[in-house]
Structures are given as C-alpha cells and as structure tokens.
Amino acid sequence: MYRESSVLSLTNLSFYRIATIVGALLLPAQALASSFTPESVGIRARFSGATTLGKPQPEEFKAYDISADFRLPWRGDWETWYLGGSLMTSAGYLSASGQDSLVVSVTPKIRIASKHDGVYFDAGAGGAYLSRHQFERQDFGGAFQFSLTVGAGVTLYKGLGLGYRFMHYSDGGLHGSNNVGADFHMLEINYRF
Fold first, then answer.
1. Mean pLDDT, rounded, of the chain
2. In which residue ranges of the chain is pLDDT below 70?
3. InterPro entries from the xrefs (predicted)?
C-alpha cells in the first residue's frame, strides 16, 4: 500500500523502480552509443491542466520532471531548417490529493528546427510507467500509459532555452474503459548541446 505524503520518498521505491528510472535515462545512450548522441537536458513543471484530450480529469495534478533527449541517427537538411528524430526520456513526480507517483517515460519524437535561431517544434508518442496509477478521484487504469507530446521552444543564450510542452498520459483503453487519462501543459527550461 502506498504511503500518503506530499514528497516522494525513495524508501518507498523498490529496486525494480529505481532500475527502471536509471535504465530509461541511460540505456539509449549506452546501448546504441554510436547511433545516439545527447541533444539536450532539461527540467519541466506543470502550469496548467486544462483538459484537451479525452474525458475531463477529476484530479488537479502537480507534475515536475527532468528530461534528456537523444538525437536519432537520421536527419534531413534544408537551407535553414532540418527534420530529424529524437528520443525523449524523462523521470518525474506526479502528485494529487496528497498521493505521489513516480513517472518514467520514453518517447520517440519527430523534430523540425531552425539551423540558425534555435526555434524548434516536435511531436511524439511513446510509453510511460506510473508507480501509482490510482489517486483519490482518478484512476489511470494501470501502471503502463501511452504518452503523447507536442512541444515548441527557442534557444535564448548559448544553448540555454525555454519551451512549452503538452503531454497526455492515457492507457488508450488497455485497462478498460472506466479510467481517465491526464493532460499537462508544462514550461520547460533546457540546455541544448
């Protein structure tokens, strides 16, 4: 049974959960080191949860995470823009009604970016693991969730950037039809290599 607290306690995490976090953040770089190159690292915080996909969510979540993006080995270049792929990995904290969850996600994305002024747009779909999927007023249905994301941002100064990210977690009916996903509008600060 989960302990209710406003702070995620590492003592409640099993070895399996900690290994999942480490694997999600490090495996892409180690397993395919010749194909993947680090693209960016960042932190994100939720600033709004207005429902945009699916049923209205009954909980008001707090969400924070860290992310690392890895450039995929394919890319198409134009004069001032390029189209390429990246793999977004993240680990974070989700809280509602005094209950906490660890969230780990891996999401392949397609990205279009300016070569000169640091503007980018991306979109992707992947998977996420929630250590708690049942909250006081909301049930995600199960630990595995599909993740959808759309983002945009700009590099402001020497690799340091600011962006917006929309994220949606849902089981897509995998665990039945009586559960609700969640939408997150997040502000992100990142550093691009």
1. 85
2. 1-35, 51-52
3. Lipid-A_deacylase-rel
